[in-house]
Amino acid sequence: MLCLLSSMLHEIGHLLFMIGFGRIPTLICFGAFGVRIEAASGTALSYGQEAWIAMGGIAVNALLALCGGIFYRVTCSVFSLQFLLVNVMIAGFNIIPVGTLDFARAIRCFLLCRMEDEKAEKLLDRISYISVSLLLAFAVIFSVFGTFNPSLIAVSLYLLVITFKKKWS
Fold it and tell me: Which of 80, 112, 134, 148 has CA atoms 20 to 30 A from the CA of 22?
């Protein structure tokens, strides 16, 4: 329940930034691996605004983690610690610069401000390949020399698939 709540609040963070920049959502689709939000095409946003929208969810999870940490210091409750950890994990996952994850979308906006579309996409693809390769290597090493962690391997493989799927589509 905490994961679902924190994930919903993460998406609300994107929505708040989107609405704050004058983009009204027209469609919200829930899928197995996240939420897709589409907005009316009439409002053009700068790359900076797009980056803020992309980072809005991470900002919400960071704020929620901070609140969880404060409540844990005050109450020492297991719930506050779990709330803190869930939000750190969601924010941490979304700062992996791979594919369509939030931080990769923000990096894309930053690159598009400074170079041509094609060069920006190639550089972001390289960053994604390196990041997902390092994550997969870490998952395998951690599983071999530490505790076997099938979820970390599954997430790494999922990110690998979406990274290469983008290239093939």
Answer: 112
Residues of the chain with pLDDT under 70: 31-34, 42-43, 166-169
Please classify residue 1 by burial: count the beta carbons closer than 10 Å to its beta carbon, then call 0-12 exposed, 13-18 middle and 19+ buried. Answer: exposed
Tokens of 158: 């999922």
* Exposure b/e, 17-39, CB count within 10 A at least 16 = b: bbeebebeeeeeeeeeebbebeb
CA pair distance 155, 90, nearest whole angstrom = 12
Give the Cα separation of 118 and 99 in Å (integer).
16
Q: Confirm if 9 and 64 have CB atoms less than 8 A apart.
A: yes
Structure tokens at 24: 């009204």
Distances (CA, A) of 49 to 54, 56, 57, 74, 132: 9, 10, 14, 36, 26
Q: What is the pLDDT of residue 32?
A: 62
Percent helix, strand and coil across the chain, each to the nearest 5: 75, 10, 20
